[in-house]
Amino acid sequence: MSEKLADWTKGAEAIIYQHCADCGARQYFRRSFCAACGAPEPETKRANGEGTVYATSLVCRAATPETKAHVPYNILLVDTSEGFRMMAHGENDLAIGDKVFARYKKFAGRLVPYFEKAR
Amino acid sequence: MSYITGVGLTSYGKHEGSSSLDLMSKAAAQAIDDAGLTRSEIDGLLCGYNTVAPHIMLATVFAEHFGIRPSYAHAVQVGGATGLAMTMLAHHLVDAGVARHVLVVSGENRLTGQSRDASIQALAQVGHPDYEVSLGPTIPAYYGLVASRYMHEYGVTQEDLAEFAVLMRAHACTHPGAQFHEPITVADVMASKPVAMPLKLLDCCPVSDGGAAFIISPEPTGTAGIRVRGCAQAHTHQHVTAAPRLSELGAEISITKAKTASGLAISDVRYAAVYDSFTITLAMLLEDLGLAKRGEAAARVRSGYFSRDGEVPLNTHGGLLSYGHCGVGGAMAHLVETHLQMTGRAGNRQVRDASIALLHGDGGVLSSHVSMFLERVR
Prior knowledge:
The complex is a heterodimer. By secondary structure, chain A is mostly beta strands.
């Protein structure tokens, strides 16, 4: 069953992913099928917000008036505990390998996931 | 069998008042002239996409403007890999007898035709519209992410990356058409403004106006014979979020297939033309292609291995980093320079031996790859 859960891209404080019951693959970009095996209707699940920093880039030069107001801001790739990778914002001093958990922040008029160091 | 029979290239930088079609026309006319052909002999046309003046039928817009009536024509879009992807397609079209002389052309007034912000914004759209672009990343940030991971896994430093910017600038200083002619040092790169860490301004290619073109034909049209010996592609993902691990990126896949297609090894390569949108791009691709061991490309730059008089001269025109980057034409300049080197026409930049060249293009965020071997047969 593909439950309709709203996530941060729709303004809700949640990170959603899909799990394929057929092959076990997890995917972050929402689709009506599993991109690994093609099976229809992967299960929609809510992530617990825990993860590990895979990569970071502190953006110091932005391209739009809305985003320029926020520089510098840290763009991250986070490997979540559920096993999918996602892009997000995070604290400026995060390093690769840091254990993090998700909070949410307003950025350029939208809600975005913002990871902080787990304590 | 196919040959690169003619090349054309404008200077890169500012071409105030020139439209994309003007820049494309200038380069195309040069390439046709260089091949010793007339424009009526061009029966195939491939042109790169355009961000300043996008059009759903760019190739026929150009054909009409330029005054040719090809029997095969369309635009191609593979990001930064477009130039080599078009060359690969032209090679197969000519080989299959679909067309005799294929004109491959691209040009944009990216610097003077739109604001820098507009360029950066347009390019950021290679990101996922919902899950990436809304976070405010830029192309340098996508590559900054990859750079941070690569540096972490292989012990590469920011000073290592700076070496590639310094080398490309040194090469550009010897080419009158390059956008930048002031020598730079590793310290200059390190002190340049942060853009998307670990990448700083001098780790990034500029935005340029310019045009490039070449002709692909089934046999040589002049005295020189520069043959496409073999080529291959690989496409593993579009968005950096969906990229495979560093050891499974497309460059390694495409070079393996290109080596098989050409029957050549990396040890045969005498000249290299490798995509260099950022210093990290060049460092990673050189190592993925096998032109340096993991984490050791910068050491090879320092030892002169990739210099004009080194074992494998690299991007002797200055690359995207210092010759300039006008979109699809940006990496086409790599092929133009390779052709000049292979035909002994590179003047003060001429290398000792460019008999076998390896070219590699990358589109997206290391998403799409084309590897190609060229060989001088006469």
